[in-house]
Amino acid sequence: MNAINAPLPAARAQSRLGTWFDHHVYSLVASVGRMVRKPAATLLTVGVMAVALALPLGLWAALHNVQRFTGDVQQARQVSVFLKTDVAAARAAELAAQLRARGDIAAVEHRTPEQGLAELRERGGLDDVLAGEDGNPLPHLLLVTPRGDETLLAGALQALPEADVVQHDAAWRQRLDGWLRFGGRFALVLAALLGLGALLVVGNTVRLDIQSRREEIGVLQLLGATDGFIRRPFLYLGASYGLVAGALALAMLTVADVALRAPLAELATSYGSAFALEGFNLVQAAGVVTGAGVLGWLGAGLVTGHYLRQTRPTDT
């Protein structure tokens, strides 16, 4: 008898696990079915959520592209050292080699007056001015990339006997970094506010669905169904709304990217840049859709939990 009855607990556990899995699958399919049966309400809910998600995501993408457009950090930190006009080419090259050996300098680029003149002529509009000059009026230029604080390095380079003018964009870069930090913080605040709005939209939609199934929920409670059993279909409904809204938000941003890519590329080309908009990669897109699904799940869970606490049968 013991040998015959031994497998029964394992069989019960397997049956219980199978029932649990079947109910999850049924809840997911039923949630998708309810969305399909109400296309107008579904489109309205998903559309509002998608717009709420697309706005902070679009702002974040814009800030990311602005950071790329301003150039990499090393280029923004470059210090330009214009040597005196009487410094010979050999001395300029020797000075560049000496600077490269310093520990606080990462790289040094030496541009001759001929290279500078050719660059000015390529930009155009200065031919008349250059034609009136005897010879080449441009000095040797050293573009120095620092390893540490460029302000301290600029002061040291200004003390060189051969240096005439030292320029660096530290103030401009600090102001730009400040604006970018403000934009990033603003994007986070906007995402929090609109994310809360999306959560409320899902919660209200699920609440209406709960009200329409009040009698069914009451019967399940009288039959002894657990809160988790009753809550599960609504959780999948909220998650489905979120997943579809996240995908729609990405589609909206992709359309905006396609619409802006060509004119922005033409504008960048006119400035001699190969800049192009950069959208979301696969990992980021998956994170957006997953996050939207979690947001919908939370909204549905909060509303359903509140309703079940209000309607839970009490012992008398």
TrEMBL record:
<keyword id="KW-1133">Transmembrane helix</keyword>
<feature type="transmembrane region" description="Helical">
    <location>
        <begin position="234"/>
        <end position="260"/>
    </location>
</feature>
<dbReference type="InterPro" id="IPR004513">
    <property type="entry name" value="FtsX"/>
</dbReference>
<feature type="transmembrane region" description="Helical">
    <location>
        <begin position="280"/>
        <end position="303"/>
    </location>
</feature>
<keyword id="KW-0132">Cell division</keyword>
<keyword id="KW-0472">Membrane</keyword>
<comment type="similarity">
    <text>Belongs to the ABC-4 integral membrane protein family. FtsX subfamily.</text>
</comment>
<keyword id="KW-0812">Transmembrane</keyword>
<dbReference type="InterPro" id="IPR040690">
    <property type="entry name" value="FtsX_ECD"/>
</dbReference>
<dbReference type="InterPro" id="IPR003838">
    <property type="entry name" value="ABC3_permease_C"/>
</dbReference>
<keyword id="KW-0997">Cell inner membrane</keyword>
<feature type="domain" description="FtsX extracellular">
    <location>
        <begin position="78"/>
        <end position="151"/>
    </location>
</feature>
<comment type="subunit">
    <text>Forms a membrane-associated complex with FtsE.</text>
</comment>
<feature type="transmembrane region" description="Helical">
    <location>
        <begin position="186"/>
        <end position="206"/>
    </location>
</feature>
<dbReference type="Pfam" id="PF02687">
    <property type="entry name" value="FtsX"/>
</dbReference>
<dbReference type="GO" id="GO:0032153">
    <property type="term" value="C:cell division site"/>
</dbReference>
<keyword id="KW-0131">Cell cycle</keyword>
<dbReference type="GO" id="GO:0005886">
    <property type="term" value="C:plasma membrane"/>
</dbReference>
<dbReference type="GO" id="GO:0051301">
    <property type="term" value="P:cell division"/>
</dbReference>
<feature type="domain" description="ABC3 transporter permease C-terminal">
    <location>
        <begin position="189"/>
        <end position="298"/>
    </location>
</feature>
<dbReference type="Pfam" id="PF18075">
    <property type="entry name" value="FtsX_ECD"/>
</dbReference>
<feature type="transmembrane region" description="Helical">
    <location>
        <begin position="41"/>
        <end position="63"/>
    </location>
</feature>
<dbReference type="InterPro" id="IPR047590">
    <property type="entry name" value="FtsX_proteobact-type"/>
</dbReference>
<protein>
    <recommendedName>
        <fullName>Cell division protein FtsX</fullName>
    </recommendedName>
</protein>
<comment type="function">
    <text>Part of the ABC transporter FtsEX involved in cellular division.</text>
</comment>
<keyword id="KW-1003">Cell membrane</keyword>
